[in-house]
Each structure stands twice: as C-alpha cells, then as structure tokens.
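Hello,

Our lab assistant flagged a job as stuck in the queue for most of the afternoon. It eventually completed. Since we weren't sure the result was trustworthy after the delay, we are filing this so someone can double-check. Below is the sequence as submitted and the structure that was eventually returned. Let us know if re-running is recommended.
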Amino acid sequence: MEKTIQTLIPDVYEVMKSKDYTGDLDTIAMQCGREVEQAIKNAFEPYEQKKDLRMSSIGRCERAQWYTVKGYTPEEIDGSVYLTFLQGHVLEAMLVALIKLSGHAVTDQQKQHTVEGVNGSQDCTIDGELVDIKTASAWSWDNKFDEDGIKDDSFGYIKQLSAYGKGDNRKHGYFLALNKNKSTLKLCKQELEQDVDTFIVDLKDKMKIDVPPMRIANATTINKKGEEKLCMTCAFCGFKEECYKAHGGLIAKPIPSGKITNYFVDNKGASF
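-- returned structure --
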C-alpha cells in the first residue's frame, strides 16, 4: 500500500505494534540519538537574548516582539520551562524516527526559509507535504489542535507555518501534534495565509516605532472578585512585568498545586 500523509498516524501506530519496520534501524536510531544529544547540549548553552524577529514567533504578541527587538531583558525562565523545551525536542526526534521506520519519506529537515528578511527553519517535509511537529499538553490537545486546523492560535502557529510555505508557494501544510500525556497523534491540515509576506513587512514597521504596540485582544479579564487577571498567553510571557509596570505592576497568586501561577494587575499602584 502506498504511503501518504493520510496514512501517517495509523502507520506509526502499526509499526510500534508489529515491529515490522522499513529502513535501516541502526542508522535511523543513531540519527535520532545524535539529534537528542544535540538538543541536550543546546539546552546547556548560555542563554542569549536575540534582538531580531524570528519566523517561529512572528504570529505571537507584537508587543512582546517589540520588547525583544528593543533589547529589553526578559524575566528569568524557570527550570521547568527549559525542561519542557528540551522534552519537546527529544519527543520530536523520536517521532521523526518512528515516521521513517513506518515507511514514510522524511526530507528537508531544518530547511531554511527567508521571507522579507525574517529567517526560520521548518521541521520537515513528510511525503512531500510541509509538516510542523508540535508536542501538546492535555489542554492544548483539546483546545488548539483540530483535524481542520488550529482552533486557538495564541502562539501564532499559523503564521509560522505560512511563512515556511511561502517560498515554496504552498497553499496548505500540516501540524502533527503529539499528546504528551497519552502518546496519541493528531494530523491537522492547515490552509496557509498567502499574504504572510505583507504581514511581515507591516510587523517590521511596528518594530521601528518608539512605543510598544497594543497588547493582544482579551489580554485581561475581570473575575467575580473584580480582579483583573492576565490571560494564559500573557501569564507565560517573559515581558509581563515590564508590560504592566505603568499599571502598578502585577500580583502573583500561585494555585494550590503550585504548577500554575495566576497574575493580576495591581491597578492600585497605577501611574495613570
């Protein structure tokens, strides 16, 4: 049976079940090992704040990108967040190896793209289709990824994928999501934004101004207690303290489990 992107997920499940793989197991396993090794080494490289726009973040909050371009120092990242990043790289390398062993053609790994002076590297091409691999928490699995595309795009995944596809004149691409909790897969076909180059030009212009762009829509909500709570996108932003400094700063309230911290605007200390 011909291998196509549509048979990808059942083929990966089947190769794990049957152990009837395609290709050179030793070579594929060693390549996976090298990628994991490199991911671990990269995780221990000193953090260096870059001051340019990156294709992986062009669809994210413009205000946060402005702080990056202007050289503001982000808040210290917790070790658990770095561990999450590393976990994503390791799982991606593992998944690519399994895709190869299931008989699918994986090419163009880390192919470089440039759109209007902004650079980025795609994950890979599978069976001739542009694919971006995402590891997903239980919440992201339920709320972000759908077979018909991204539902909640607060991290700007669509513009990222659209930029990768622009140079090759692609009309669509795919997100391959891996549920980190259940080890299940979901393939999401995504129509690409053909005007992403124009968007990037406008974004670059916004980075040149002396005041930060507006915050994202629905950055805060008012709860039943009358408190102004940051949305999850803002709560995980490395510039949230700087962003709300003129409003009096933020008040952090960890939930009992300690896994998530909610942030509230301290309007009492606002300077305007």
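-- support follow-up --
The delay was a queue issue, not a problem with the job. The result is valid. The chain has nine helices and 13 strands. The mean pLDDT is 92.
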